[in-house]
Design a protein that fits this description.
It is built from ten helices and 19 strands. By secondary structure, it is of the alpha+beta class. It folds into two domains: 138 residues, Creatinase/prolidase N-terminal domain (Creatine Amidinohydrolase, Chain A, domain 1); 213 residues, Creatine Amidinohydrolase (Alpha-Beta Complex). The protein has a six-stranded mixed β-sheet. A three-stranded antiparallel β-sheet has the order 7-10-11. A hairpin with a 6-residue loop joins β13 and β14. The chain is elongated and about 70 Å long.
């Protein structure tokens, strides 16, 4: 990965902002700029953070990760925190000449912020803390060639896994069993892990967009939503198919047709240069005109990369211009409470005048 290029772009952002040093705690951002792969196991426990300014790149971690840090982040000076990060941070900031520290406002806890503020005050250190929002995430939204290849491999893996799973589905299998099968196949295929817990939602459970697999058994003719993804070499994939074990009733035949029509219409217009709300508008209007507008509550899609959900968002809020090299999902859905739902999801690479579908498993119906 081109870490030198990423650091150069980040430093350019520093020149355009009111702080001279940036403090990065978010795990995917940390990995993106340094190569350090360790993950945070819980919200109040961090495996490390980065301090970056014009002249210094520091990776702050503890003895648990010292060897990995030295191997994975050779462009960074490794600082081993021996006692407490907040206690040791002021001296490190002073050493690298920090006067104004930018921090990720969404990834530092209020308790840590208060402790650091009090520590700086006690030391009478003239250092200003400045929150920032989404600077690394905006850089991550545009994938380089190495990232695109990594995501394509992740998409190929989950496509093959889902193909194998769907072929073997039959009535009487529990949702939980299907989820376990996907996890086992991902392990056997060499995935790092699942990108997220698999969503296996049959019958009325399909009305829950983020349903958790249950003891419920699959039944003939009802819709079954399978929303799955893997993480491979750090990069995620995400795809959804809705299938029927037999012949769906006329109601769900209609819903499936509408969702597929909305998806294809959105896919048809996605390309570099359009606003990120346009595909959502196109898909949503088709579903609305069919009389199901109130049953499509989420945005059309989201970016995928080191995280399953990242920038850009395909939805009505805060539209941005889509660019060549972004990777997004296109996943319209209709969810009928108490009855079930249909969601269809593709991952696509945005190109200059079109988009390239990365999730290759078919399993679409012409109903």
């Amino acid at each position: 990965m081109n870490y030198h290029g990423r650091l150069s772009k980040l430093r350019q952002k520093l020149r355009d902002n009111p702080f001279d040093t940036i403090w990065i705690l978010q795990p995917e951002n940390r990995r993106y700029f340094s190569g350090f792969k360790a993950e945070d196991t819980q919200i109040n426990e961090s495996s490390g953070s980065l301090l970056i300014n014009e002249n210094h790149c520091l990776l702050l971690t503890d003895s648990r990760y010292s060897s990995e840090a030295e191997i994975e982040a050779p462009d960074f000076e490794i600082e081993i925190i021996t006692h407490d990060l907040i206690d040791e941070l002021p001296d490190l900031l002073k050493r690298i000449g920090t006067h104004k520290l930018g921090f990720e406002e969404e990834y530092i806890t209020w308790a840590s912020y208060q402790r650091l503020t009090n520590k700086l005050s006690d030391l009478a250190l003239p250092l200003e803390l400045i929150p920032f929002h989404s600077i690394p995430e905006k850089l991550r939204a545009l994938k380089d060639e190495m990232e695109i290849k990594a995501i394509e491999k992740s998409a190929d893996m989950i496509s093959a896994i889902l193909d194998e799973v769907i072929i073997k589905l039959k009535p009487g299998i529990r949702e939980k069993d299907v989820a376990w099968q996907i996890e086992n196949l991902a392990h056997e295929a060499g995935a790092d892990s699942l990108a997220f817990p698999s969503i296996i939602a049959s019958g009325p459970n399909g009305a829950l967009p983020h349903a958790v697999p249950t003891e419920r058994v699959l039944k003939a003719n009802e819709p079954i939503i399978l929303d799955v993804g893997v993480k491979l070499n750090g990069y995620c994939s995400d795809m959804t198919r809705t299938i029927f074990l037999g012949e769906p009733d006329q109601h769900f035949k209609l819903i499936y047709k509408i969702v597929r029509k909305a998806q294809l219409a959105a896919l048809n217009i996605i390309c570099s240069g359009i606003k990120s709300d346009q595909p959502d508008t196109v898909a949503r209007e088709i579903i609305k005109e069919a009389g199901f507008g109130k049953y499509f509550g989420h945005a059309l899609g989201h970016g995928v990369g080191l995280a399953t959900h990242e920038s850009p968002r395909l939805g009505p809020r805060k539209p941005i211009t889509l660019k060549k090299g972004m990777i997004v999902t296109v996943e319209p859905g209709i969810y009928i409470p108490g009855k079930g739902g249909v969601r269809l999801e593709e991952m696509v690479l945005i190109e200059q005048s079109s988009s390239k579908i990365l999730t290759k498993a078919n399993h679409f119906y012409e109903l």
